[in-house]
């Protein structure tokens, strides 16, 4: 499972879209703030209505409906549910004044609605009158269900479902994708009868109780029959009964993909946990500045899980919706990416997130530090001046400031929640004022550096790799840890492949052959599984051109592999979100193999892009898998397998390079010379 491949560039694009859509980040590359999308505005309204109803404040919710969604109050089916809940909440308060208000609510609001809301409404009206007789604490009473606080969450979920569709306030694509993948992951392991290795994460992230489905209008009860294929696809995708799928299609007026989105958004994520995971990933990938504490100013998800403090159970969104960074009060004016592109979170308006992928990546890498930090040596004899490409970059300060800043989640209707730094560690608090790596720290060795400094080192090496500067990467890593490539020979082989192809592209064939003879050949001699990738690499000599490097090696994927391995070496674990994506994408693939049909919704949710193989890897699956155990990288073993891309039909993606047009003896001669 951990060997499953993920296209991290595609995930970066989805994460950036999510963060922009939810106004979680500020962009210091932009000089002027921008307005949020209407979808984001409506999602905030829905969130506040949900909080009001879950708190039992029905009047506040009705006031919000009146201002932002009056069509809800025009629907007597929904108005009856609201007035019935208001009646119960007035009685729950227990004072004589509130009891009088409850009677007035019955006479002026609830009874009139009961006459024409729906056929069963009048019977429900008579039944709820028993609340006058039975106490709210009597669990054996006929109206115990009416008294239950769970009813608050049910009506809040129902209203959210209706509002989401009418206001077109769908969640960002990444949020829906994560829900879908986790739900399939849970079903897969349940059917297999085994426990998922990420069960603690999935239980904490995806809440057990979904929102109630929105009922279709009465005019849709006589809708024409739907395509049975659509009914079955929807039912299997989101675990509905056949009748449930039909009702969902009725509410969506027969639109399969809208019905699917409606059902996905009914699944509830713990927002604070999601924000923690996204923030951790963004810092790790260099999307946001690493000099900030965790987004909630609390214990991070990783720390919580390590402390075994995860307590699965029903979770109220009002306790998890509006979490902000513990340094929020110190941040500058809000600057978002919304001025550059309009993202309202709905797949309809984000028709091609991946079309933004290259642009987003270019903006991000342009805004990232070119860090190349000097002096990564663990050797006391190493002098900072010996480092060539991580040298004298002002320690990344100016470039790092161009990264996006984590803004955190705001309640824009009620102001910014109270902010506290009590949950921030001393290391995290000091990180905000860190301006770069100190020369004196460099002489202490990498493992003694602050967390902030370690991030800059890892991101600097990642950036070098992304730029194809393989020789410089090898030099810096060897300076930092001479034993690194002895433990990670596959990564060294891949870097030398990049160096070889870069020299071929520049026309330096002699230099390319020297790399092959001095490095690639000896590595193959130690592991004959690398022989085929070597031969395919040498084929670049037959077609020298400027695209040899681009066609031959996916630099961003290799950069991620290097980042994870180097990060683990100096004490930076890969983000939990990376682990979740590997596991859930793997089970998605396995699940549809068992079902023996193609997922009709994977394109809508960009799952196909997360698995996409758009370049040829020169290290085959078999080679990587044969070397995983010997590399002793723990969780970073998966980075070796990030090169294990196969095409959808299972064929070898390297087959375009597999024509053996060179004499094998000549190739072997190059290897041993």
TrEMBL record:
Q: Which InterPro entries match?
A: CTLH/CRA (IPR024964), CTLH_C (IPR006595), Ubq-SigPath_Reg (IPR050618)
User: Which portions of the sequence form the region Disordered?
Assistant: 377-411
The record ties this protein, via Pfam families, to: CTLH (PF10607)
UniProt cross-references to PROSITE patterns, sorted A to Z: CTLH (PS50897)
UniProt lists compositionally biased (Polar residues) regions at 377-390
Q: Where is the CTLH domain?
A: 42-98, 454-511
Q: What is this protein called?
A: CTLH domain-containing protein
